[in-house]
Amino acid sequence: MNAVATIAKPLFSYRKHWAHRLGPAPFLPMSRAEMEVLDWDACDIILVTGDAYVDHPSFGMAIIGRLLEAQGFRVGIIAQPDWQTAEPFAVLGRPTLYFGVTGGNMDSMVNRYTADRRLRHNDSYTPGGEGGKRPDRSVIVYAQRCREAFRDVPIVLGGIESSLRRIAHYDYWSDKVRRSILVDAKADILLYGNAERAIVEVTHRLARGAVPGDLDDMRGVALLKAAVPDGWSEFHADDIDASDEGARASGPMTVIRLPSFEQVAADKEAYARASRVLHRESNPGNARPLVQKHGDRELWVSPPPIPLTTPEMDGIYGLPYARAPHPSYGDAKIPAWDMIRFSVTIMRGCFGGCSFCSITEHEGRIIQNRSEDSVIQEIKAIRDKTKGFTGIISDIGGPTANMYRIACKDTKTEAMCRRPSCVYPEICPNLNTSHDSLIQLYRKAREVPGIKKVMVASGVRYDLAIKSPAYIKELVTHHVGGYLKIAPEHTEAGPLSKMMKPGIGAYDRFKQLFDQAAKQAGKEYFLIPYFIAAHPGTSDTDMLNLALWLKRHKYRADQVQTFLPSPMAVATAMYHTGQNPLRPIRRGASEAVDAIKGLRQRRLHKAFLRYHDAENWPILREALKSMGRADLIGPGKHQLIPTWQPAGTGGSGGEGSRMGRKHKSQRFLTKGVPAPRR
Question: Angle at Cα 533 formed by Cα 530 and Cα 534, nearest 5°?
Fold first, then answer.
């Protein structure tokens, strides 16, 4: 085996497969009848997905399918198949190369269950918003059915569900450490992160006769091996923090050994160490391969993919998408499509590194940008081709609204960096925080004929925005429609340090500049801040202080988000282990973190965020008394909750229905809807 490649082959430089002469399909086929119209006798690749098929670059299966089509391959799609038997997985016949399996745009367990492990009854990625159209652990189930349908066809896993479960991981829904999803799915190879580079190389190499086991020299892949190949030097994760040698151990043939599945399943300290090392080995410039033993086999995880260039991003978003759901859905509404059909993605990645979020883990921390021309061309395509367009672009952004063309000032420094965040605990002095390119893009987007307004609905990274008051003025003057969502997540230093979020002072400064710009524009706009309840490292007192802050600022959140331990996140490791992987993990000397696991305490923390809801007053009264803060119960301006209880709400007693009606009719200053955190 050779060392992992350090230089990426340009995405569109491969010699095209023979089927390119057939040209692009109006929609990638979902039936044999569509294949016959295209004069196909077989598909080269069949993509199986847990989402409805929407041919638009906001949907992963559409990007991968159209990209492979542009490489000259025939691609079919099986969307949301009935998984009870293998028959629906054979509907397009036997693929000549492989099945590509994904759970969809979300992890199937996050999609199907709430933070309280309750079943959701709707699914935004399904026609009609209907729930129950995908199985739990969709990737595993789909892969097994593909194997039953055609036993000898290779299976390639991809998408966020596979990406975030690529190594042994804590699973919140079963409350245990599970093996790599590659092992449980019995697939041949897993592609993680932004997988365009890997999927193109895998497909061309398989078409030339390679087998998946030969592909361990690629970036962004995980596969199983009998042993670490000869010639590789192993360095154990135990020693990474124990010596400078561990941090320096490098070279083209150095591999880092993580604690085995058996170790991390039995030893929480070993799990925390594995989590810390995984996240330290996330920079494409210096990451080393990882190995983790699962039984008698070695899970080999190669370094992350090299980020896409702007011309490559432009090429991907310029593919011939139909920009609509597949015709087989008729007039059925697909909520996720309705939400994004008038929006434009301008970049990928996030260097924020928030410990509870999976964006950085999946898309990487190096921002990948589209050109101005590419973005403008898509806006024109929306104007000219998307049914129902009224002249308003609903969002121009990405994982965050304002990281477009922001990057490290020095590529050599960037390639050596192991910081998990470029903006925490403070903004790195090597980060170029200029928003000039984004301001220029906004102005060009507004000038497109037929465009009435360009909205910014993606979350604004406010600690970056305050470095550019001109950006805030541009944003408020032209791109806000009544309110803007941002996510301080908390007010207290303890939980913020575990979230890797800035102090509330940065929010205060942003609000000051936001209000000033709104006043100058003659507008009445509001900020909607989002907060997380029950995050690891949060005490009851922290939540009380946050509730008092909310009342002082007259914020009443309509909906709130309770921390959900998503696979592989740093905060999930804190939740599971009670240790902080942001600090060195050493036997008996690791930093302890309080994990909020009990249902009653999780509900209490959520109740503090909704202090204004009478249903929560009984549990809050009880908590305030036990905390020695009964002084906050009463009718005073600076007290949190009253002594009375409206009739028909969470407890007995009270002033009767009149007071209840008065409470329920109070007009909220702001109404919050939780921002999606992937």
Answer: 150
Domains contained in the chain, CATH given: 18-301 (3.40.50.2300), 342-521 (3.30.750.210), 534-678 (no CATH)
pLDDT at 244 over 70: no
Closest CA to 255 of 280, 237, 274, 242: 237
Confidence grade of residue 248 (pLDDT, cut at 50, 70, 90):
low
Contact 420, 353 (CB under 8 A): yes
Q: Each residue of 324-373: pLDDT tens digit?
A: 999 999 999 999 999 999 999 999 999 999 999 988 888 999 999 999 99
Tens-digit pLDDT profile for residues 464-478: 999 999 999 999 999
CA atoms within 13 A on the CB side of 333: 9
Peptide bond into 425 cis (omega under 30): yes
Question: Which pLDDT band, with edges at 50, 70 and 90, does 101 fall under?
Answer: very high
Query: Which CA distances in Å does 34 have to 27, 62, 67, 651?
Result: 9, 17, 19, 60
CB atoms within 10 A of CB 130: 12
CA 518 centroid distance within chain: 31
User: Where do the H-state alpha helices sit in 434-539?
Assistant: 436-446, 462-465, 469-478, 493-499, 504-520
Is the pTM higher than 0.85? The answer reads yes
Residue 404 and residue 367 in contact, taking contact as beta carbons nearer than 8 Å:
yes
Cα separation, 19 vs 40, whole angstroms: 9
Predicted pLDDT of residue 578? 97
Greatest mean pLDDT among 28-32, 412-416, 665-669 lies in: 28-32
Tell me if 476 sits within 8 A of 519, measured CB to CB: no
Compute the mean pLDDT over every residue in the chain, rounded to the nearest whole number: 92
Reported as type and span, the H/E element at residue 277 is helix 268-280
List pLDDT tens digits, range 8-36.
Answer: 999 999 999 999 999 999 999 999 999 99
Judge contact between 301 and 289, C-beta under 8 A.
yes
Tokens representing 638 are 């600076």
Q: What is the 3-state secondary structure (H, E, C) of 343-391?
A: EEECEECCCCCCCCCCHHHHHCCCCEECCHHHHHHHHHHHHHHCCCCCC
Looking at beta carbons, which pairs linking 330-336 to residues 24 or more positions away fall under 8 Å? 332/127, 332/128, 333/127, 333/128, 333/129, 334/52, 334/54, 334/124, 334/125, 334/126, 334/127, 334/129, 335/122, 335/124, 335/125, 335/129, 336/51, 336/54, 336/58, 336/59, 336/105, 336/124, 336/125
Following DSSP, what letter does each residue of 384-427 receive, concatenated? Answer: HHSTT--SEE-EEESSSSS-TT--BS-HHHHHH---S-SSSSS-
Q: Rounded to an integer, what distance in angstroms lies between the CA atom of residue 131 and that of residue 134?
A: 8
